[in-house]
What does this fold into?
Amino acid sequence: MNKIAVLTSGGDAPGMNAAIRAVVRTALHNGLKVMGVERGYAGLLNNELKPMNRSSVSDIIQRGGTILRTARCLEFKQEEYRKKAADILEKNGVDALVVIGGDGSFMGAKLLSKLGVKTIGLPGTIDNDLPYTDYTIGFDTALNTALDAINKLRDTSTSHERVSVVEIMGRNCGDLALYASVAGGAESVLLPEKEYDKDELCGLIKSGKASGKMHNLVLVAEGIGGSEELAKYIESRTGIETRATILGHIQRGGSPTACDRVLASKLGFRAVELLLEGKTSRVVGIRDNKIIDDDIDDALAMKRKFDEKLYEISKIISY
It folds into this structure.
């Protein structure tokens, strides 16, 4: 192996830069050349590859987003475009590709590997929705961003004795909202994994008010949606002033936490190690506090296990 490439794809996540840095410097340390692919698979199809050296990744570990930038690429679902990508990598002398992203990015890496491209995937997504790994790069930072917002909303909600409905990112996975509810002391959390009853929720809010609560925080995962409508419903049924706040893409930005920087560095290092060991079509992650790697087909086929225990804890200690 002489040369590898690295790209970031899909939604950006804090810690992607730390992962890029680890991949580049580990590869250079082992005598490999490195190319960065700009704008994900879309950039690969446009031959947007550039050489990278140690200084290319200086002063980026603390930065959010991704210096390689990212983009969606629907064309990559078509085999003719994947063949074009494989040809571009070959023409640039690239022997292997490291992909940092979520399940869609991993699917692209999986399909490229079927064409003979050596691939390793790193889990970069704030949603924490990849079942094979306990945590994904960016999750901890996004969680702390949400927590900071919740703390501030609690202040104003208490001052006005309001209910605050806060929508947190997470389409099909409610981990961000669930962890934020426990860490932020929310009274209720609505998740795509669990059914809920709006009238039962209103009953809890009224009971809390009757017992002297000055405010009420209701966290809603993005996959549930309808936060504005829910706020109006709560106010109409309880008579308590209710406001909705959608945190949105603020959760994707910001300097990554120490946890995300360390995790990204470990995973980036391991990705290059795997390639040097002659392994391909693998994804790296963390399980039981140990860095692991799985076959990419097996990883994508895994079913996510919802944390029932943490959900139970959130309900018991919320009031």
User: Anything to note?
Assistant: The mean pLDDT is 97. Residues 139-160 form the longest helix (22 residues). The CA atoms of residues 157 and 215 lie 6 Å apart. The chain is about 40% helix and 20% strand.
